[in-house]
Write a structure and sequence with these properties.
Layout lengths: L1 H27 L2 E3 L1 H11 L1 H22 L4 E11 L2 E4 L4 E4 L2 E15 L3 H67 L5 H36 L7 E3 L13 H11 L4 H21 L5 E13 L3 E16 L5 E13 L2 H7 L2 E9 L7 H67 L5 H36 L6
Parallel strand pairs: 1-6
Antiparallel strand pairs: 2-5, 3-4, 5-7, 7-10, 8-9
Length: 480
């Protein structure tokens, strides 16, 4: 019995250990995503992008509906009526005073033959409007990609800075341990120990503040991606240690000549201008005559309809008098009738019609006049929108190029400063360890070196981002 108990306890302990080993994996499991995956996730889940996509779908439906409006209409009708009291028998067009049932069947079609090309221009208007919607969607996706790239780079920057501050904190911890040993041995005064402890606390505070910034950067990225806030996310690191690409004014001029008109914002404005042009033409079509063709098939049934099946003689009856007042008689017959079936009446009463209608607008309260004037104003406004989009695109390209060049100069200057600060820090560290430099002087040099490291990182990632923005205008997809 004791052996069985130990065996059972062993199985339970093994199960518990398996659960404990697997549980952290589930709790701390997190997705690792690169930039392209983050961008793809954003395109799929960002709310604003989804709204822009729905707008593009609505414009597509408007285009399909405008094409369908050209097709002829076709309608089928069926009626079933009961009549009580005095009514007209449709089979004889005679008034009767009895209960009856009537059925009507018809199929009709209507086709617009000409209306001043209004419907054709409406199709063209909807087509260009749909093109504008697609360009708007592409611009929104491009802007989202740049936003994700910027936030991605911010996280990479803070992660590298975190490594620097962690190394700095480790150095301060080692310095504090050495100072404590020397203090315990009576080699240094208590003030040296307090200085090392103060520096250690300051470095810990810097690292905590940096970690808070990194947490907020991840939250900002998650919110923009519409990623589950409660779910862990880890972006993949990128190696930027190689030489960075440098672009010259040759590439800038190439963007102005080859790429400017292809930017989504410019294409959207151009499509909107074309849409407004055909909207004007469609409105002008309202002033022209309209020609319609119509055709129909119809039949009916009446419960009052009767057919004569025969007649039998039944003597004579007086029908009048002659000029000399003599009576006039005629044979009298009894007629036999029967109801006409539904199918027979439908066949007998079957009729067709074909016609044409000409409609000429003469006066409608000047609605067409002012509608055309408003359409002209909309066209002028769309033309201004195109001009504004082209100017804005040119300014954006030039701003991106200048921002890239300024970031490049800033990065190179920061590297030169870092080299000088690093050399000064190394000499000062030797002097401080030898007791030839005060703690406050050494701490000032150390902080300047740390700031120089931070400035290089910031300048480096700013240069990378500005380069990606300019590459976007060159037609290069955002990627690291």
């Amino acid at each position: 019995m004791p052996g069985k108990k130990n065996t059972s306890m062993g199985k339970i302990s093994a199960f518990v250990w398996v659960v404990l080993l697997l549980l952290p994996v589930k709790i701390f499991a997190q997705d690792s995503m690169n930039l392209q995956q983050c961008i793809a996730y954003t395109w799929e889940n960002n709310i604003q992008l989804a709204r822009t996509g729905l707008d593009a779908q609505q414009r597509q439906n408007v285009l399909l509906q405008s094409k369908a409006n050209i097709l002829p209409s076709l309608n089928a009708n069926a009626s079933h009526n009961y009549n009580f009291g005095r009514t007209v028998d449709p089979s004889t067009n005679q008034f009767v005073n009895q209960q009856s049932r009537n059925n009507g069947l018809s199929i009709s079609t209507n086709l617009l033959l000409f209306n001043g090309l209004q419907m054709l221009n409406q199709v063209r208007q909807a087509k260009w409007n749909q093109e504008a919607g697609l360009h708007n969607l592409q611009k929104a996706k491009d802007d989202a990609a740049l936003t994700v790239a910027n936030q991605y780079l911010q996280i990479l920057l803070l992660t590298e800075r975190q490594k620097q501050l962690s190394n700095q904190l480790k150095t301060s911890q080692e310095s504090r341990i050495r100072t404590k040993s020397r203090f315990d041995a009576g080699a240094v005064a208590n003030v040296k120990l307090l200085e090392s402890e103060a520096q250690l606390a300051a470095d810990e505070l810097l690292l905590i503040d940096l970690e808070n910034q990194l947490t907020r950067a991840y939250l900002n990225l998650k919110q923009f991606m519409n990623y589950d806030i409660g779910k862990a996310l880890k972006i993949q690191s990128v190696n930027f240690n190689g030489p960075l690409i440098e672009y010259t004014e040759t590439e800038l001029n190439r963007v102005f000549t080859d790429r400017l008109q292809q930017l989504p914002a410019v294409q959207s404005a151009r499509s909107s201008r074309e849409s407004a042009l055909y909207a004007l033409k469609a409105q002008q079509g309202n002033t022209s005559p309209k020609i319609y063709a119509n055709a129909s098939l119809q039949s009916f049934y009446s419960s009052l309809a009767q057919s004569f099946s025969g007649a039998t003689p039944d003597g004579f009856q007086q029908i009048g008098f002659t000029a000399d007042s003599m009576q006039v008689f005629a044979p009298r017959y009894n007629y036999s009738t029967q109801s006409v079936s539904f199918i027979e009446q439908v066949n007998n009463n079957f009729g067709q019609s074909l016609g044409f209608t000409l409609s000429i607008p003469v006066f409608n309260g000047l609605q067409n006049k002012y509608a055309i004037q408003n359409a002209k104003i909309s066209l002028q406004n769309a033309q201004l929108g195109l001009t504004e989009a082209e100017i804005q695109a040119r300014n954006d390209v030039y701003t991106a190029f200048e921002g890239m060049r300024l970031a490049q100069r800033k990065f190179k200057a920061a590297e030169i400063r870092l080299t000088a600060q690093q050399a000064l820090f190394q000499q000062s560290e030797l002097s401080f360890n030898a007791g030839a430099m005060s703690f406050y002087d050494f701490n000032a040099v150390r902080n300047n070196f740390s700031n120089a490291q931070s400035e290089v990182l910031q300048a480096k990632y700013e240069y990378i981002f500005q380069t990606k923005v300019f590459e976007f205008y060159m037609g290069i997809a955002v990627s690291f």
